[in-house]
Write a structure and sequence with these properties.
The protein is an alpha/beta fold. Helix content is 34%, strand content 18%. The protein is built from 16 helices and 16 strands. The strands form 2 sheets. Strands 3-4-5-2-6-7-1-8 form an 8-stranded mixed beta sheet, sandwiched between helices. An 8-stranded mixed beta sheet has the order 9-15-12-11-10-13-14-16, sandwiched between helices. A hairpin with a 5-residue loop joins strand 4 and strand 5. The chain is elongated and about 80 Å long. The termini are far apart.
Length: 441
């Protein structure tokens, strides 16, 4: 009976399929809910052809994890001898997302057919004998030797590539894919222009199939508030195009900051104990021109800096951006405001004081270009001494447009937010190195 229903339902378009299912009794409906082919979007199902690698490169919330878990479930169900590698950025992430997550292996399929997880053995076992082993991309050598018939690699763009670990982990995995008639690998990831993803994209067309997609494509299975909020926050910024629309945004050659570098410095929240907090301002030349860059950053007793907020405002009058500075200083309990005074000189100080700014105000005068001032700050990121407490799309887009020894390459005409960040971190970590002419207002 169920097999007949499946054949009929699979031939129907999604809307008609759901209408038909409403006529089933509860038991039939519950059983059909476990049949992935009825609910998956076409992009979530394995593509046809004799491919070796299937790369799902899509925005957050697209349904990549569910597609990966269902692919592995189907392999295990069809072949008791299947030996599958589950590889993630770290072992805790493999367990939390790929195995025990809401869309992980322990959550999909009918209850009697679900696998058993043995954490001490790093093993997932199905009732029919199929097995999957857990691996971390941080330990490439653990993939040297074991043989597998298939592999599911999650968030490959996030794998740490220090000392080429990410590419070595992938190479060792491929060398061990030698069991069965058609060894295959599925890689699921949000796109980032890191070496491993760039290499996969360049593979011959007969070896790889690439599936792309955006967050909005899975809107029916996501909270409406989530979709609306993230689109409002990220918009069509470069970061939004990457994280939501699934575009691979290539880094500009010679850029001081790269997407991969910024991801390594990401943290959920800043440390609670900060010894100093400053608000830095890059005032606009006019109310109708560039944005007023306003960035808040703090320093810990151990000497690490944390970018706390991008409070920049666009097309603002002097009174409006001055109020935004005063508000940011109050909200973050800042101990100093640093403002570039090349444009406007003493007027900048007057405008800020008129906004009832009671903090010490430090006016700085740039004697070098924005890119030259940014280079020592970029070195602090490379050394792991700066962290971003959250995501700042517009600010990070500007950082990635600053090219060493060159000019700013966008977005926009001027990196106002990036310049404010440079002044903030210079004040906190570089003393007077970049400020040959400074006075306290």
């Amino acid at each position: 009976m169920i097999s007949e229903h499946l054949a009929i339902l699979e031939s129907l378009p999604p809307a008609e399929r759901r209408r038909k299912m409403n006529a089933f009794n509860d038991k039939e409906r519950d059983e059909l809910l476990t049949h992935w082919q009825l609910w998956a979007r076409p992009q979530q199902l394995p593509p046809p052809g004799d491919w070796r690698t299937w790369l799902i490169m899509a925005g957050r919330g697209f349904g990549k994890t569910r597609a990966g878990a269902e692919w592995v479930r189907a392999l295990a169900k069809a072949d008791p001898d299947a030996r599958i590698a589950l590889v993630g950025a770290t072992l805790p992430e493999v367990r939390a997302v790929m195995v025990e997550g809401e869309s992980g292996l322990l959550s999909v399929g009918p209850e009697p057919q679900r696998p058993r997880f043995e954490p001490s053995l790093r093993r997932v076992s199905w009732p029919n004998g199929a097995q999957a082993m857990l691996y971390s991309a941080l330990e490439p050598e653990t993939l040297r030797g074991p043989q597998h018939s298939h592999a599911w690699c999650d968030e490959v763009a996030k794998w740490d590539n220090a000392s080429a670990r990410a590419t070595r982990a992938w190479d060792n995995l491929l060398l061990g894919l030698r069991l069965g008639e058609r060894p295959r690998a599925l890689a699921t990831t949000t796109p980032r222009a890191v070496p491993l993803v760039t290499r996969l994209m360049a593979e011959p067309a007969e070896d790889i199939v690439i599936t792309r997609g955006s967050t909005e494509e899975n809107r029916d299975n996501l909270p409406a508030r989530f979709v609306n909020d993230i689109r409002r926050s990220f918009g069509r910024s470069l970061l939004g195009r990457q994280e939501l629309d699934g575009e691979l945004i290539a880094d500009i050659e010679g850029a001081l900051w790269t997407r991969a570098l910024l991801e390594t410095c990401r943290e959920d929240t800043a440390p609670p104990e900060l010894t100093r907090v400053v608000v830095a301002v890059d005032p606009p030349a006019s109310a109708s021109g560039d944005a007023c860059g306003i960035v808040v950053a703090g320093l810990t007793a151990e000497g690490s800096a944390h970018v706390l907020a991008d409070a920049s405002v666009e097309k603002a009058s002097p009174e409006r951006w001055a109020r935004a500075v005063a508000n940011a200083a109050q909200v973050w309990n800042a101990d100093r405001v640093v403002a570039e005074a090349n444009q406007g000189g003493a007027m900048v100080g007057s405008v800020l004081r008129a906004a009832q700014l009671s903090l010490p105000l430090k006016l700085v005068h740039a004697s070098r270009g924005k890119v030259a001032r940014a280079e020592p700050v970029a070195a602090l990121y490379e050394a792991g001494r700066v962290h971003h407490a959250g995501t700042f799309p517009a600010l990070e887009d500007e950082l990635c447009g600053l090219v060493a020894g060159g000019a700013y390459q966008g977005p926009g005409r001027s990196p106002d937010r990036a310049d404010a960040l440079v002044w903030a971190l210079t004040e906190l970590m570089l003393g007077k190195v970049l400020e040959p002419r400074v006075r306290i207002a």
